[in-house]
Each structure stands twice: as structure tokens, then as C-alpha cells.
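Section 5.1 Outputs to date
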Amino acid sequence: MERINLKYWDNERINSLMPENFVNRELGADLLEAMDSKKVLFLYGPRQSGKTSLIGWMIHRLLEKGISPQNINYAVMDFLDLHPLISDTRKLVRLLRDESMGDKKIYLFIDEIQRLGNAGLLLKQLYDAHMNIQIIASGSSLLKIKEEIKEHLTGRKLDFLLPPFSFLEFLKAKSGLPPNRIRRYDIKETGDFIDLYGGRVSSLWNEYIRTGGYPEVVVSPKKIDWLYAGLFSAYLERDVAGFLGNANYQKFQDYVRLVASEIGKIYNRQSIARTMGRDPRTIEKFEDILMVTFVLYRLTPFYTNIRKELSRAPRFYFWDTGFRNFISGEVKNASVTGSLLENGVVSEAQKMSQNQNFLLHWWRTKGGAEVDLIIKREKENIPIEIKGIREKKPKMTRSFISFIENYKPSRAYFVTSGYYGETRYKNTKVHYIPSYMVGLLRKF
């Protein structure tokens, strides 16, 4: 227990759990609040998105609240010699109780749990022991344990996705604005903010789209090339290689580069299969791997008939544009326009959707009318057109107007390069907002 129980740790080791330059994550408050749920908290996300640092932050918050170190335990499954201890759940529960302070709640953090055999069953056994043990588990890849976790922990867990930095978190890391200005804004507040800081924020937004939001890259931008090279190599070797035969390992890398070059385009699996010289089922497997490891996000077309949504061709976007740019060889020279700008806006909207009750789609009619992004809520469908053009007041497109006329939303958004304002089209309020504000809105 000396390895995992904090009462045996000195201050230096405890402090090392949270880096000095830690950036507060928006997800942190939700995780702390969920501590009272008594369910297993499952923190997942792409490799190096900051999960371990966030766990360290949570441990420090517990200590600040007066939780005794002997009631806090932290185990990293990268250390294989800890596996026997964590795997023997009966022995582990007895040890946790013996080492703890009285009948107080015990906290058990298990990092990189995907490396642990039978992880889902073990978490179920710990949960079912009913010994007042709060379990917080994290994992970089769900490929190995997705079905097992689902089978054993249905109704017993709460899921929390930690992607790379959002633009708001990027601004915190860069200290590019006064601290009281780095927050989310209601749409009515945006005018004053844009007037004062629009130029500076626009420059930081372009940097964010080029370099991405992986925490280590953000705080060490001069090391960007080898940081991304190491990340991509580790991703392939640790998360992917075991699920691909030798013949498909190189093809998978070729496929990732192909998708990176065609972000936002209508996706045709059959055509890509022919191009890659592989059958469509193999290409579908590649898609699933990239989605479950949080590299790609699939945007399905908007229909009022759910059967059509699921059967029609999607579009793919990267969770992190910097990672996409590295794969495409454009990390330093990427032009923040067109499909790359669109990817940045979609990615920010997708991060917002994680804690708000909406889904994202795109829309196209048989006649060819298109809208880039549709926010689908239970009672409303909100269109977002992404242009990034520099006209003083851009004109609404025919496709955008067509959607408004068909679905009559109360509001709509037209994303521009820098123009902001509002107008009305019939009964719909149309907000013009600069692209960088998408990641700073409180809600759509």
C-alpha cells in the first residue's frame, strides 16, 4: 500500500501529481460535484489530453477540503507490479479499509485502467463491495475495454470525456487576456468583448487552430514537431497496433493521412476502399478505431427521420486541428480558412455539446442546399453557417435562408472572420459572430 496510499508519500511526491503550469479544466468542477454520486467516475479521452494532471488536481482539491491523505489512494496501471494488488479486489478492499481513517469515505484513483486485465469486472466488484469507496478510473483508449466496461458497469458509472484544451482553456494557458476576461459569454455580452480584444483573440485563435490544444504542445510550442511525432508514434504503437494485422498497419497510417486531407468533405466509404485497395469492412474498422480513440468525430446529416440520418454519408472532423495538421504536414503553415476553419468551429461546438443537451449534424437537400452545422435539440434545430469571410456584413446564403424557412428556428448563427451583429429573417434572430467566439459562448 506504500505505493498507492498518500499517507506514505512525502510532500514533493504529492505535489508532483499536479504540474506547476496546470490549467484549470472546465470538466474539473463537474468531476468534483460527481464525487457525491457514489458511482464509478470514468474519465476517458485521447492520449496526453491531460487526464493524469486532472486527477492530480482532484487529489489536491480533496486534500484542501481536509480529506486525510490516508483516505486517498492513487494507482497507475503503467506499473505492472501493481496489477496483482488492484486485481485482488477482496484483499484490496480490506487493505483500503485498514489503511483509512475510521469510517470516512475512501478515494481510489486508478489511472490508465485499460492496461488492467478484466478492468470492467474488477471495477464492478469494488463498487458492489459497498464499503464507501469512491472509485475514479481513467483510460486513454477504450478499444480494449469498451464492451467489458459497458457490460459490467451499466448503471454503476458516470462517464466524463476530457478532450484536448478547448479554445477557452488554450487562452488560460497562454495568459493572453486579463483573467477576468477568460470566460464564457452570453451572446449579448460579445460586442464589448470583441471591441476591446477582438484583434488579440483572433490572432490567438489562428494559433490555436494551427497548433491544437494538446496541453504539452500548448505550453511548449517550440517542441511542437517532436511532441506530435511522439504522440502519433505512441498512439499507433500502444492504442492501435494490437488491433491491426501487419498488412493493415501501414494502410491504417495511409488512411489517417487521407482523411486528414479531406476533412469536412462528404465521406464515401466505398470510394475510399477502392482507393486504399481494401474492402469496405476494413475501412469501417479504421473509422471505428479513430473514433473510439478520440481522433475523429463523425458528423451525420440532419434529417427529421432518424433512419435517414444513420444511413446517409457522414462527414469526418478531427477532435484536434493541431493533430490533424501534423498528420498532414502543415502544422506550421496551415492556412486557417476553408475546411480547416470549419473543423475548428465544429470541434469547439462538439466540446460544448459534451455538457449541454444537443447533438450536431450537417444539412443538405437533394437540390444541393447545404448548411455546415445544425444544433439539434429536442424542440429546436439551430443552423450555423461557417464562412469566415471578411465582408463588413456578409450576406446570408440561399442555403442558410432555406433552412430557416423550412424549420423556423428562433435563432441562427452566421460565423464570420471578424464581423459581429444581429439581424432578423422573418421570425428568426440571426447572430453574426467571429469564428473565435464560437468557443467562448456560454450556450448556443
